[in-house]
Amino acid sequence: MISKAVITAAGLGTRLIPATKEMPKEMLPIYVRGESGPVLKPLLQVLFEKLFDFGIREFCFVVGRGKRVIEDHFTPDWKFVERLESNGKAGQAAELKRFYAMLERSVTVWVNQPAPLGFGDAVLRSRPFVDEEFLLCAGDTYVHSPDNGFLRSLEALRADHSCDAALLLKSVEDPRRFGVAVVEDGSVGRLRVLRVVEKPPVPPSDLAILPFYVFTPEVFDALGSIGPGHGGEVQLTDAIQLLTERGRSVMAVRLPKSDVWLDVGTPESYFEAIRVSYAIAAGAVR
After folding, report:
1. 40 partner at 20 to 30 Å CA-CA among 23, 25, 64, 250?
2. Strand 250-254 versus strand 165-171 pairing type
C-alpha cells in the first residue's frame, strides 16, 4: 500500500493574477459537501483530505517563494477552533477539527523550490523524502471520486505490473495544453505507454496526462539526467519519456467516466471548477 505522497504547490499562478498575487492558486476555494450543505475549502486542503482518506500518512509539499500561507494553513490552530465554538460557529469549528486531526496523524515535510524551474524540478527536490514507491500530485487540480476509484486503479496498476510509472489519462478536446501519451491497449483497460510529449503543437493522440501518478524512485534518476525542455523548464514528461527509452515499464489507466476532474489553472477552468464543485456539493451530481 502506498503511504507517501509528494504534492507540488510551487507554481506562480500567473494566469490567475491579480487573484493569485498574494494567494497561491492551490489555496483558491472550491465547494465540498459539509454536514449542513456546500462548504468552501482551499483546493489543496480538499486534495490532502482525499489522500488521507485513501491511506496516505506521509506528505511532502514542494512550495516556492510567497507560499508561506500554505504552511500556515496546514499548521493546526486549536485556539481559533475554540474561538469559533465560543462564538456559536459549531459547524465551522467541526470542519477545522476534522482537518487538524488529520494533520496531527500525518507526517508533513516542506521542501522549497527557490525558482520556478518547472514541474520536473519541483518533483526532483522531493528526492530526500522518497525511498519507496510514492504518489505524486499537482496541488492545483482535483478529482472528485466518491470511492477514490482513480487512486485505487493507479495503485493496482503499479502493483500488478511492477511498473516504474503509472499514469492517469483522459481524452480531451485540445491536448496541446497538456502532456500527451501514445499507448497500446492491454488487459482489463490497462494501457502500455509507448511515448509521451509535453504540449505538442501537433498532438499524437487526444490522451492528456493528468497530474496524478505513482512512481518508483527510478523517476529521480531520469529527472537528474534531463535538462530544460518545453518552455525552458525541467519537464516531468521528458523524464517519463526517458524511462520508456530505457526500457522501463510505464503503464496507464483512463480516468473513470464516473469521476470528475477539476482544475484551477486558468480563469475559465476555475469558473468551471466552482460551478461543478457546487453542483456536486449540493447533491446535483453524484
Report:
1. 64
2. parallel
